[in-house]
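Structure in, sequence out. Go:
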């Protein structure tokens, strides 16, 4: 194939693939099968591989993701991305409409109402019909350039139809559909990986990944709601028409109303219908329709006066409490979990709910057989809010706190200060499973591949009784596991061997000492230099370490003096794990004398960024104070950003942080 022939064929394939994408995702119809589509895509990929100059930014092949990025660059928004004022009250919504009437001096004001998609705000610019770039909200003025990740969203056109608008900037919401999120969690269960908490958090985390190929495997979607600086568009309803012409998805449900009563009717109707939407919603967005009216109403320093978000109360449902089971955690804590008569809530069937602790059960007088009210506010497992005592028949059973562990039968220990009941048996099979899951987690020793199902087998067939036994595993022993192949066994052993070189603070954190988190473990190693020095320290010595107080120090002191823990440490040392803090040559002294606090979603996890700060001479703190030099603020920064602003702490974006280095 000559270059000219390749160029012609690539242009044809690209146009065909764009057309089929539009048919499937926008018009909900298809002319070819998935296999035929994939064959066309592979042919285009082969041509682009042979003739790299034919690869264009809007090529359909770009949806599968390019090479990993080193970091995100920043894009300055042409118009600030403002947040909306919120209300949870119909009375406040009526008051909002009254303010509109006062501001515009008339009684009837045309408004549009649409679902508030629970996703991540995004802005996208098209030029000459081709997607130029896309960015997150960031701090409102600048956001991360996530163009490569956005290109993996199959519903998002990389090239616009020629008979529609060609150059404009639109704003929307990236989300993870309910069905896609459920399937993603099923896949993570099968792989032994922890489930994602909710669609919004998983969407935000996915957009911050530096490898577009990984992003392409996640079920992201997008819906649009606004236009930036459009001189020839005069209203929100005209925006909807432009979105349709461009093949960009708008909200599935839209209302118009010109009175307070109309607004209230719309949000009530939306509340009934939103359960059938393919994405999670947490409210309704109300906007004045006319752009001229919007300009007249103006904005405050934070939000427009012509729009408001009405937030729905967390969804509740009534059901019967059938039984109370006890879950045993890695610290031995016994947590009661309600088993419920299945009930539909927030679009999913719920049969479990958290009860927190036995003091909570007693305070709410929760009994087996009760009709209870459960509430789901974004998390996977909802909570029991209250009991419908008026429905009691007298047959309900009072719940008593356990006196023995339900797994191993050991007498429990009650921690009065913490309202926690614990199994004190370190060899309890359930405690062992949870401890090993914690030990191998990414935040601790990072032994990849050892998921819950593999760990459960290791404990059940008594190959592993504690974390030190992991380092005695070999091919012959692991071959006893069911449904585990030789390649997986080889990967497990390599990951276990690699973990021996982890920093000792990770080992201390992985040991699961009560009250010692990742930050505390790091502080201990920075202060004492080795695990042996920590073990030898008195309670008074331990309290001299930053962030180790009067509750944490005795817990550490006791742990290192328990006979079985001393034996465990000896075995880990013999296995070759790293017990002493390495002397690390600083990458630079560019951050000497500075103290940093990290908040929000960034391109890397916080511990990795904290390591970078320390390697360049800076210090990292968990809370903002007058001693904080910089707040490194990522996407969706919360209360720490507010406090830093009040204290006058300098706030930097990730791009600015990288530039400082």
């Amino acid at each position: 194939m000559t270059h000219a022939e390749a160029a012609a064929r690539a242009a044809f394939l690209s146009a065909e693939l764009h057309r089929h994408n539009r048919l499937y995702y926008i018009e909900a119809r298809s002319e070819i099968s998935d296999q035929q589509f994939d064959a066309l895509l592979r042919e285009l990929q082969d041509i682009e591989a042979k003739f790299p100059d034919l690869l264009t930014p809007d090529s359909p092949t770009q949806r599968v993701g390019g090479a990993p990025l080193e970091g995100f660059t920043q894009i300055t928004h042409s118009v600030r991305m403002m947040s909306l004022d919120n209300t949870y009250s119909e009375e406040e919504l009526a008051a909002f409409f009254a303010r509109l009437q006062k501001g515009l001096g008339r009684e009837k004001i045309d408004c549009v109402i649409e679902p508030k998609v629970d996703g991540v705000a995004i802005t996208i610019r098209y030029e000459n019909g081709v997607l130029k770039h896309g960015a997150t909200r960031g701090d409102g003025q600048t956001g991360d350039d996530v163009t490569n990740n956005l290109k993996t969203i199959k519903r998002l056109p990389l090239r616009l139809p020629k008979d529609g608008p060609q150059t404009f900037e639109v704003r929307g919401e990236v989300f993870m559909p309910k069905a896609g999120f459920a399937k993603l969690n099923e896949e993570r269960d099968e792989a032994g990986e922890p489930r994602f908490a909710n669609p919004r958090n998983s969407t935000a985390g996915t957009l911050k990944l530096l490898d577009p190929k990984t992003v392409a495997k996640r079920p992201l979607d997008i819906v649009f709601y606004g236009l930036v600086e459009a001189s020839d568009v005069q209203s929100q309803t005209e925006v909807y028409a432009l979105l349709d012409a461009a093949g960009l998805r708008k909200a599935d449900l839209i209302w118009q109303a010109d009175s307070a009563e109309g607004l209230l009717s719309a949000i009530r109707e939306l509340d009934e219908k939103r359960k059938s939407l393919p994405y999670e919603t947490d409210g309704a967005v109300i906007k004045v329709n006319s752009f001229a009216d919007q300009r007249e109403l103006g904005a405050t320093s934070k939000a427009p006066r012509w729009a408001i978000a009405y937030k729905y109360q967390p969804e509740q449902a009534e059901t019967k409490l059938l039984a109370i089971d006890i879950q045993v955690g890695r610290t031995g804590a016994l947590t009661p979990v309600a088993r419920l008569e299945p009930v539909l809530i927030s679009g999913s069937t719920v049969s479990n709910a958290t009860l927190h602790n036995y003091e909570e059960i007693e305070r709410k007088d929760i009994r087996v057989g009760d009709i209870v009210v459960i509430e789901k506010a974004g998390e996977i497992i909802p909570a029991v809010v209250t009991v419908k005592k008026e429905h009691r028949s007298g047959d309900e059973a009072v719940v008593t706190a356990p006196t023995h562990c339900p797994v191993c039968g050991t007498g429990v220990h009650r921690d009065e200060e913490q309202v926690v009941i614990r199994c004190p048996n370190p060899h309890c099979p359930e405690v062992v499973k949870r401890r090993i899951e914690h030990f191998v987690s990414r935040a601790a020793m990072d032994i990849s591949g050892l998921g819950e199902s593999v760990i459960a087998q290791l404990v059940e067939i008594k190959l592993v009784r504690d974390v030190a036994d992991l380092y005695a595993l070999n091919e012959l022993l692991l071959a006893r596991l069911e449904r585990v192949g030789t390649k997986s066994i080889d990967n497990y052993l390599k990951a276990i061997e690699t973990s021996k070189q982890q920093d000792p603070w990770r080992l201390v954190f992985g040991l699961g000492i009560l009250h010692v988190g990742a930050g505390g473990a790091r502080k201990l190693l920075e202060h004492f230099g080795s695990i042996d020095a920590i073990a030898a320290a008195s309670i008074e010595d331990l309290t001299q370490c930053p962030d180790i107080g009067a509750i944490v120090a005795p817990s550490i002191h006791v742990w290192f003096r328990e006979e079985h823990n001393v034996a465990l440490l000896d075995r880990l040392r013999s296995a070759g794990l790293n017990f002493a803090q390495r002397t690390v040559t600083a990458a630079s002294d560019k951050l000497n004398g500075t103290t940093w606090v990290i908040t929000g979603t960034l391109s890397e996890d916080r511990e990795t960024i904290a390591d970078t700060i320390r390697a360049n001479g800076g210090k990292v703190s968990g809370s903002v104070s007058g001693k904080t030099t910089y707040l490194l603020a990522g996407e969706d920064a919360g209360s720490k950003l507010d406090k830093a602003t009040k204290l006058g702490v300098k706030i930097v974006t990730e791009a600015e942080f990288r530039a400082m280095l």
